[in-house]
Hints:
This protein has a single domain (4-200), classed as Alpha-ketoglutarate-dependent dioxygenase AlkB-like (Jelly Rolls). 13% of the residues lie in helices and 34% in strands. The chain is built from 2 helices and 13 strands, in the order ββαβββαββββββββ. The longest helix has 17 residues, at 19-35. It is globular and about 40 Å long. The chain binds succinic acid and fe (ii) ion.
Amino acid sequence: MIRVAVAPGVVHWPGYLDDESQAALAAELQAVVRQAPFFQPRMPKTGQPFSVRMTNCGPLGWVSDERGYRYQPLHPETGEPWPLMPAPLLAAWAELSGYPHPPEACLINRYEAGARMGLHQDRDEQDFAAPVLSLSLGDAALFRIGGATRGGRTVSLKLASGDALLFGGAARLAYHGVDRILPGSSRLLPQGGRLNLTLRRVTKPA
Ligand code: SIN
Ligand code: FE2
């Protein structure tokens, strides 16, 4: 397993999931999405739609709309609990996170060809002792990550299908985002596009 130390607290494992594991995970996610369809998140206050669509699995899910960013146990449109986190996600967390408690939320972002994600911090969690673990499937993305303040130096890396990225410790509150998707760079997803899964611990363990 190749492990690249990108910056203090940021680790990249290119090709963490092999082709077979990627296909198996993509199939499990299809079942997740049948139960919890993608929804269109909206910016707090303005209601401006995001360019990505989202869903979640695990006990909690991250949502955003006019009322703000938050975690909640129910899908905002169906009102149903989020589906269980597929076992390969729990296994990746156990192997890579270095954190002794399970993740509580897996946000699934779906990027079509023109979608992007502006620089932001992940800071809606109560426990910053836990890292954020990201897994990518489908088309590659140009991902950017900097420091804990806006406007500092950033580094850009390509996240391809099967890659894992961890940011924690000194990088837990690092600004990060997706500049663009490289359409047609993977054949994993029949519809094309990219799925990014971010696993997070939300609450402080008792
Ligand atoms: C995110 O920060 O929510 C997504 C990051 C990614 O798509 O790689
Ligand atoms: Fe994020």
